[in-house]
Specification:
- The complex is a heterotrimer of chains A (152), B (164) and C (360).
- Chain B is of the alpha/beta class and 164 residues long.
- Chain B is built from 5 helices and 7 strands, in the order αβαβββαβαββα.
- Chain B has a 5-stranded parallel sheet with strand order 2-1-3-5-7. In chain B, strands 4-6 form a two-stranded antiparallel sheet.
- In chain B, helix 2 links the parallel strand 1 and strand 2.
- The two termini of chain B are 28 Å apart.
- Chain C has one domain: Cytochrome-c3 Hydrogenase, chain B, CATH 1.10.645.10.
- Helices cover 51% and strands 14% of the residues of chain C.
- In chain C, helix 2 runs antiparallel to helix 3, helix 5 runs antiparallel to helix 6 and helix 6 packs antiparallel against helix 11.
- Chain C is globular, with a radius of gyration of 20 Å.
């Protein structure tokens, strides 16, 4: 157990590895109430960031992708774990939510991207199979986690 | 009733009478078998699994419904009683109807658990239809969240008391 | 050879919950499979946004019946973090006691289902009979066999009396004996080993790339257990081993789960022995200040993840749940290849599916 670094060391490492990607406009960081790092990145920086982390740290454990409809954006939070949790967050325009899929870098992301596609209508370019995961076959309405959906 | 080679009435009437007599003789036996050996089919139409594991627990040594003649069947065509758990989701609704249609008469439907009886805590969700009663004719409602094995056995015995 | 598609589910004797697999078979060999989930999708994340934090507690306990307590605990920890509450130590011990009991009952349930699906009904009956001891303890503590409603935001609602402690101690001894006996039976049962050895193999690299968690990951050699890796009270004060194996097949998963059950019994004893005195809850405000909280727990099937965002009202703005069955379902895509039809039941049982958790 003595080899496990503390949270500050991990946060510093991640920020150092992504320093050039977090330097530009549209990038900032904050923490959750428990002190977990949340790094906001411009959308085009997501794939290079994940790719660099995998190259430097090794295979990353991705827990899930949280999608949230925050008009006029849709926020996507990618929750990773490396001794401690950290999150990469991007914002997509609500009327055209398209982002590159991470499935070739992190095969474990397959079902999470399908679920976000189902629930919020986000298109993940490069995902081999974006069929509905949870919604029933006969679902006609808008994606359920979108705020315009009102049901009686 | 048509027979391939038409025999005379003198031969037909005794055969028909024998058949009717046999049916009358066997009817109480069939009724006894139906009441004392009901085979159940368990259908989870969208529940949290709590009631399902309590139904499975009735098969295990502490509750042991097999001593009452109840067997858990795998095919709807072998089952007398359909035990439904969970609220009916949109995706499950047609399959529930189809499973019920595949069961031979006479058949009964038991809604096990609060979600199955009323929709429970998931009422109002857009992908949930509601209670099983919205989809099938229910003969017995056994509430509980989850339903205790004792309550399930009690409900089944009360249902069998109404079985003819 | 002719290609056939064998549909398994949504209703099938192997599955106690509805999920559909289309398994492509050529002769006796399985070549591919697809999966359709969503039969148990109740839109819980959506429902959470329409109810208050305390109402959500009742809802989130019913995501899954088998691991209902750990869902409630993880949610409560997230909300308590947003509120800045310090939960009393005694309450964390009581929560952990029920978490470990839940782990025991879940693994015994799984062992019974695995044995039943292989055809060894006697092990099913014995495992579920011994599981009743655990359910009795949980009922004594909380009033419910399966659903406990013992958590509240800020702690727990019921305390354990000294007499209950004595009784539970005796029952834990009996449970230890029974589970050890089951483990010995499983270790020497040749037909169980013959059906599970070498079946459903996942390498360590596959487990890491597909982000698999829980006993499946530990059976392939990944040394990860959130009770030790993200230590919170009381686990930071308790000594326990994390069980791993390297074989990566269903047999290794069986051993991991059974040995974990024994570790959990030991943990229950230690929790009872070292539980501090004190209050069992602190009061919580109705309105939660804005913020984001992430809480993780080691559920019986692996890493359970909750993300809660609050906007300052008495209802959460977003609750995201990631249950451990989801990566297990993904791992099935690797396992259901190049096997025979007879292995399908073993593999589906070996991953310990909880579809209600996965669909939410």
């Amino acid at each position: 157990m003595s080899g496990i670094p503390n949270r500050d060391a991990i946060n510093t490492l991640v920020l150092r590895l992504l320093s050039d990607l977090t330097a530009g406009p549209g990038a900032f960081t904050h923490t959750t109430t428990d002190g977990e790092l949340v790094i906001h990145l411009p959308t085009h920086a997501l794939r290079p960031a994940v790719s660099r982390l995998i190259d430097e740290i090794g295979i990353l454990h991705l827990t899930t992708i949280t999608g949230e409809d925050l008009p006029p954006h849709i926020a996507l939070r990618y929750h990773f774990w490396h001794h401690y949790g950290f999150t990469l967050e991007i914002e997509l325009p609500r009327d055209r939510p398209v982002v590159a899929s991470l499935v070739d870098l992190v095969p474990g992301v397959a079902l999470y991207e399908r679920e976000v596609h189902d629930m919020l209508g986000v298109l993940f370019e490069g995902h081999p199979d974006l069929r509905p995961l949870l919604l029933p076959d006969e679902w006609q309405g808008p994606p359920p986690l979108r705020k315009e959906d009102t049901h009686g | 009733m048509h027979y391939p080679n038409k025999k005379s009435e003198a031969v037909m009437e005794p055969r028909r009478q024998i058949r009717v007599a046999l049916q009358r003789l066997l009817r109480p036996v069939i009724r006894w078998a139906r009441r004392n050996s009901p085979w159940i089919l368990h259908f989870n139409s969208g529940g949290c699994n709590g009631c399902d594991i309590e139904i499975l627990a009735t098969l295990t040594p502490r509750y042991d419904v097999e001593r009452l003649g109840i067997l858990k069947e795998a095919s709807p065509r072998h089952a007398d009683i359909l035990l439904c758990t969970g609220p009916v989701t949109l995706q499950s609704r047609d399959r529930l109807r189809r499973t019920y249609a595949q069961m031979p008469e006479p058949k009964w439907v038991v809604a096990v658990g609060t979600c199955s009886c009323t929709g429970g805590v998931f009422t109002g969700a857009p992908t949930v239809v509601g209670s099983v009663a919205e989809v099938l004719p229910v003969d017995m409602f056994i509430p509980g969240c989850p339903c205790r094995p004792e309550a399930i056995i009690d409900g089944l015995i009360q249902l069998l008391g109404h079985v003819e | 050879m002719a290609r056939t598609i064998v549909p398994i589910g949504p209703q099938h004797p192997l599955l106690k919950e509805p999920i559909a697999f289309q398994i492509v078979v050529e002769g006796e060999q399985v070549t591919d499979s697809t999966m359709r989930m969503g039969y148990v999708h109740r839109g819980i994340e959506r429902l959470c946004q329409e109810r208050t934090y305390i109402q959500n507690l009742y809802l989130l306990e019913r995501v899954c019946g088998i691991c209902s307590h750990v869902h409630a605990v993880t949610y409560c920890r997230g909300v308590e973090s947003l509120l800045g509450l310090e939960v009393p130590l005694r309450a964390t011990y009581l929560r952990a006691l029920l978490c470990e009991l839940e782990r025991i009952h879940s693994h015994l349930l799984w062992l019974g289902m695995l044995a039943r699906n292989i055809g060894l009904d006697t092990i099913f009956m014995y495992a579920w009979r011994d599981r009743e001891i655990v359910l009795d303890i949980m009922e004594a503590l909380s009033g419910g066999r399966v659903s406990h409603a013992i958590n509240t935001i800020g702690g727990v609602r019921q305390d354990i009396t000294p007499m209950q402690r004595e009784v539970i101690w005796g029952q834990l001894d009996k449970l230890d004996q029974q589970v050890s006996r089951l483990l010995r039976v499983v270790e020497h049962e040749r037909s169980l080993q013959a059906r599970t050895r070498g079946v459903g193999h996942l390498s360590l690299e596959q487990v890491r790339r597909y982000c698999v968690v829980g006993p499946i990951a530990r059976a392939s050699g990944l040394d990860v257990d959130l009770r030790r890796d993200e230590p919170r009270p009381p686990y930071d004060r308790l000594n326990f081993d994390v069980v791993t194996h390297t074989a990566g097949d269903v047999w290794a998963r069986t051993l991991v789960r059974m040995q974990e059950t024994l570790v959990s019994v030991q943990l229950c004893r230690e929790i009872l022995r070292t539980m501090p005195d004190g209050p069992i809850a602190v009061s919580a405000r109705r309105r939660v200040p804005p913020g984001e909280a992430i809480s993780r727990s080691e559920a019986p099937r692996g890493e359970l993840f909750y993300y809660i965002r609050s906007d300052g009202s008495d209802r959460p703005a977003r609750v995201k749940i990631r249950t451990p069955t989801l990566p297990s379902l993904l791992s099935l895509q690797i396992q259901l290849k190049a096997i025979t039809i007879a292995d399908i039941s073993v593999i589906l049982s070996g991953v310990d599916l909880c579809i209600a958790c996965a669909d939410r």
